[in-house]
Amino acid sequence: MKLTHPFHAEDGDDKLHEECGVFGIIGGDDAAATTALGLHALQHRGQEAVGISSFDGTEFFTRRALGHVADNFSTAESLAELPGHMAGGHVRYSTTGGSGLRNVQPLYADLASGGFSVAHNGNISNASALRQELVEKGAIFQSTSDTEVIIHLVATSRYPTMLDKLVDALRLVEGAYALIVMTPRGMAACRDPLGIRPLVMGKLGDATVFASETVALDVVGAEFVRQVDPGEMIEVDFDGTVRTHRPFGNPSPRPCIFEHVYFSRPDSIFNERSVYESRKNIGIELAKESPCEADLVVPVPDSGVPAAIGYAQESGIPFELGIIRSHYVGRTFIQPSDGARHAGVKRKHNANRSIVAGKRIVLIDDSIVRGTTSMKIVQIMRDAGAAEVHFRVASPPTGNGCYYGVDTPERSKLLAGRMDLPAMREFIKADSLAFVSIDGLYRAVGLAGRNNASPQYCDACFTGEYPTPLTDLIAKTQGQAQLSLPVSEDA
After folding, report:
1. Contact yes or no for 118/147 (Cβ under 8 A)
2. pLDDT for 303-342, tens place per residue?
3. Which residues are known catalytic residues?
4. What are phi and psi of 246, to 5 degrees?
5. What are phi and psi of 36, to 5 degrees?
6. Pairing of strands 388-393, 360-365
7. Helices marked H in 349-385 — which ranges?
8. Which pLDDT does position 62 carry in this prediction?
9. What is the pLDDT, as a whole number, of residue 249?
10. CA distances (Å), 55 to each of 5, 58, 176, 488, in order?
């Protein structure tokens, strides 16, 4: 949801993070309240900002704020500011230099054809190039979000109808998007041609609902209808008429496989599969591929729990909660020193000493990004008296950045981007280290393995094989190569 990918290194968090989640409803009573409830179920996809727009048949209303959904949309007064039977919302995971209200969505604009509100999950990989073209033609941008590029493309399209303008705009963009658009004529939901970012449709009485994950439908009491297909645009009028369009052809889908690994809530269904079952199956594959003589299987909570259950069941090694996680550690705590960062990890994860002391431990986590947290958790286990600490990872090595809407450090800061397996094991100071194979991951999500000629998922963070052009990245790389003088980072 941004033009750059700085990483939250300052807070000791060592995970990849989805940039955002979207929710929309048309034709329902208390549309804004339902949207707030749906966004609360998607809070894990974006925890730093939230916004909701509504339409009452005449006028659009928008309320955006920094913080969690419950902090900003839990009172009758806040929801009274958003009347109408149509509403759309967004939770955002901002980044260094990208926070602030001007980038909080939904974004709204008064176009010649009427009001236009858009909530976007994903990242446009040619946004900088498009932005430059638009600026040269006189466009004035109010944010640094690539979502605003879509608005300007819609505004300048010469097609007559709003739907045609939106299709015209999206044909110019590269990358990933799941969009919920509101106009005075109704709502449109659209997913990029490869389906990289998720989007589902449901029904709540006579109302139509769209959301990033099925769990949001569950929470608001909506019935899951189906996923929005890759490249599909669904149009819903105020009378409840639903029309579907497929303006982008039918390329082979490439949904993000990391939704199964970490992003989605385990109680969601993604790509017609239970996320929980997928994660448990990854643990089973790990146990088959990388067995270990040990006394206990211990998950790194909470994301490592399903895979650890699968590993324990397949291996026969007892499962125990050898690490207890505090759920009251905020990401905004300032940690100015290495010592404070280490203390931050201990505030979040603490050893269950009576369980792990003297035991050979198999630690299970969903991924290793920079490796700093993994190293500290291994040390926490040793400090608690663990005899051996073996690390097993429920994803292949993450050695490449994501340009499709995931907060990722540059390759030089990814542990797998700069080290081989023995060096990574030495870095985190584990007795052994193993990752699930890429084929093992594909088997865990119900396939025979990865089709290398035509991969079934986007797995670029593991393989480096990006399914779309990366225009902005290539231009940036070529531009740096052409510089003859060093340029200050502050320039």
Report:
1. yes
2. 999 999 999 999 999 999 999 998 776 543 333 444 444 5
3. 20
4. -130, 75
5. -60, -40
6. parallel
7. 353-356, 372-383
8. 97
9. 86
10. 33, 7, 27, 47
Q: How far apart are CA 469 and CA 278, in angstroms?
A: 29
Question: Do 262 and 366 contact (CB within 8 A), yes or no?
Answer: yes
Look at residues 65, 40, 64 and name the one whose alpha carbon lies nearest to residue 54. Answer: 64
- How far apart CA 342 and CA 335 sit, in angstroms, is 9
Instruction: State yes or no: cis peptide before 302, omega within 30 of 0.
Output: yes
Confidence of residue 346 (pLDDT cuts 50, 70, 90): low
DSSP state at residue 272: T
pLDDT-derived band at 408, boundaries 50, 70, 90: confident
Q: Which residue has the tokens 């009485």?
A: 205
| Rounded (to 5) percent helix, strand, coil in the chain | 35, 25, 45
Q: Is 352 helix (H, G, I), strand (E, B) or coil?
A: coil
Tell me the torsion sign for CA atoms 438, 442, 448, 451. Answer: negative
Q: How many residues does the chain have?
A: 491
Return all residues near 354 (Cβ < 8 A) that are at least 6 apart.
Answer: none
Is a pLDDT exceeding 60 seen at residue 343?
no
Radius of gyration over every alpha carbon of the chain, rounded to an integer in angstroms: 23
Q: Is the pTM of this model over 0.85?
A: yes
Q: Which two tokens stand for residue 328?
A: 């009251």
* Tokens of residue 29, six digits: 């009573």
Backbone angles phi, psi at 15, to 5 degrees: -125, 155
DSSP annotation string for 218-248:
HHHTPEEEEEPPTT-EEEEETT--EEEE-TT
Alpha carbons 253 and 194: distance in angstroms, whole number? 4
Handedness of CA 458, 461, 463, 465 (dihedral sign): positive
State the DSSP code for 26: E
450 neighbors 439 (Cβ within 8 angstroms)? yes
Distance CA 21, CA 143 (A): 19
Helix ranges, 81-213 (H): 127-136, 147-156, 162-170
- H or E element, residue 481: helix 471-482
Angstrom distance (rounded) from CA 26 to CA 356:
52
Which two tokens mark 126?
Answer: 């040619």
CB contact at 8 A, 306 and 276: yes
The SS3 of residue 136 is helix
- Residues 2-24 as b/e (b if ≥16 CB within 10 A, e otherwise) read bbebebbeeebbbbbbbbbbbbb
CA distance 231 to 249: 7
- pLDDT of amino acid 94: 59
Tell me: cis bond preceding 469? Omega within 30 of 0 counts.
Answer: no
SS3 368: coil
User: Which one-letter DSSP state was computed for residue 262?
Assistant: I
